[in-house]
Amino acid sequence: MLDRAAKTFFQLLAGSGTLKALASRYGMRRPESFARRFIAGETVQEAIEAARALETRRLKLTLDLLGESVTNLEEAEAATREYLTVVDAVVQSGVERNLSLKLTQLGIDVDKASAVDNLRKILERAEPAGFFVRIDMESSAYTAVTLEIFETLWSHGHRQIGVVLQSALHRSEADLRTINALGGRVRLVKGAYKEPKTIAYPKKADVDAAYARMLKTLLIEGHYPAIATHDPAMITLARAIAQEHHIAPDRFEFQMLYGVRRDLQAMLIKAGYRVRVYIPFGREWFPYFMRRLGERPANVMFVIRGILGEGG
Ligand code: FDA
User: Fold this and answer.
1) Pairing of strands 275-281, 132-135
2) Which residues contact 123 (CB under 8 A, 6 or more apart)?
3) Over 70: is that where the pLDDT of 166 sits?
4) Residue 295 alpha carbon to ligand 1 centre in Å
5) Which of 23, 88, 190, 247 could serve as 27's disulfide partner, Cβ 3.0–4.6 Å?
C-alpha cells in the first residue's frame, strides 16, 4: 500500500513544473547538494569524472543523459545532437563505452518515425565506436512500441543494443521469452512507474515473485543478462541460480543505480562479479530524482536534511 502511495505521490510531484523549476535552481548548485547523491552532475565532463571514479573501484558503467517526455521534434533533435556529443566525449575520455537512453527523449510522443531516425543516428555513431546502447523502459504506455522498435532494429542487424523488462507488468514473462528467442540482451528491473492494476501487480510481494521467476529464466536462457536490482534477496537468488547451473560470473552482470547501495556494489566486486553502475547526468534530472524518492521514502529525509544544510 505504502509503496503504491509513495509512487503515486512522487509521480505527481515529478509532473509539477513549479517544483521542477525550483529544484533545478537549487538542487545541483553545490557539489554536496541533495540531488548529487543520485545524479553525477549536469555536464558530460562531470559524468565522465564520476565514471573514472567508478572504474578505479573496478565497477562498470552506463551513462544516461537525462531527459524524457519531449513534446516537439526540435527538442528531440537537440537531445539527439547532445547524445552524439556524449558519444564523442566518451570516446575521447577513454572511459567504457556504454549508454542508456529513453525513447520519449528522442520524440516518440511526437512522431514515432522521427524517434526511430534519431535513435538510428545515435547508433550509427555509437556502434562502430564499440558502444553498447540500452533502451530504457518507460511506463506501460511505451512497452509495446519500445519492444517493437527494438525488434525492428535487431532484425536490421543492430546487435549492440538491449532492452529492459519490468517484472511489475503481467506481460513481461511472455516478452522475456520472445527476446530470449531472438538472442537479445535484457536488463531485468522491478519497474519504476506506477501502473494500473489491470496490467501490473499491485502488491510488492507479487512484483518480487515475478522478478525471481524471470531472473531464473533470464540467467538460464538469456544472453548476457543484466540483473538490475539493489534487493539483497534477489542478488542472493541470482548467485545461487548461477552456481547451481554452472553459469560463470562473466556471463551476466549486476546493475545498480549511481549513489544507491554502494556497499552492495563493493561486496559483489570483491566476490568476483561484474557490477555496472547507471550514471545519470544532465540538466533534466528532476523526474529521475523524483522516481528515486518514490522508491524509498527514507530518501526524503536525506533530501530534507540536505536542504536544511545538515549534509547526509
Ligand atoms: P526494491 O525496490 O525492493 O529495493 C530493495 C532495496 O534497495 C531497498 O530496500 C533499498 O535498500 C534499496 N533501494 C532501492 N531503491 C532505492 C533508492 N531509490 N534509494 C536508496 N535505496 C534504494 N526501472 C524502469 O522502470 N525502467 C528502466 O529502464 C530502469 N532502469 C534501471 C536501471 C538500473 C541499473 C537499475 C538498478 C534500476 C532501473 N530501474 C528501471 C529502476 C527499477 O525498476 C526499480 O525501481 C529500482 O531498481 C528499485 O527496485 P529494486 O530492484 O532495487 O528493489
Assistant:
1) unpaired
2) 133, 153, 158, 160, 161
3) yes
4) 7
5) 23
| Ligand 1, atom nearest to 276 Cα | 34
Q: What domains can you pick out in the chain, each with its CATH number?
A: 1-39+294-312 (no CATH), 43-284 (3.20.20.220)
Cell numbers linked to 61? 558503467
187 in catalytic set: yes
**Cell numbers that stand for 238 in this block:** 541470482
Mutate-to-test residue for ligand 1 from 34, 165, 257, highest number of ligand atoms within 8 A of CB: 257
Indicate if ligand 1 lies below 6 Å from the C-beta of 164.
Answer: yes
Q: What are the φ/ψ torsions at residue 192 (nearest 5 degrees)?
A: -100, 0
Residue 295: CB atoms within 10 A of its CB come to: 18
3-state percent helix, strand, coil for the chain, nearest multiple of 5: 55, 15, 35
228, three cell numbers: 538490475
136 part of the active site? yes
Mean pLDDT of all residues in the chain? 92
User: Which residue, 46, 128, 31, 55, is CA-closest to 86?
Assistant: 46
pTM above 0.90, yes or no: yes
**Is residue 77 in contact with ligand 1, taking CB distance under 6 Å?**
no
| CA-proximal residue: ligand 1, atom 7 (nearest) | 230
Q: How far apart are CA 241 and CA 243, in angstroms?
A: 5
Q: Which of 38, 100, 165, 231 to mutate to test the pocket of ligand 1 (most atoms within 8 A of CB)?
A: 231
**Locus of grid cell 521542477:** 20
pLDDT for 108-148, tens place per residue?
999 999 999 999 999 999 999 999 999 999 999 999 999 99
Q: What is the pLDDT of residues 214-237, one digit of tens each?
A: 999 999 999 999 999 999 999 999
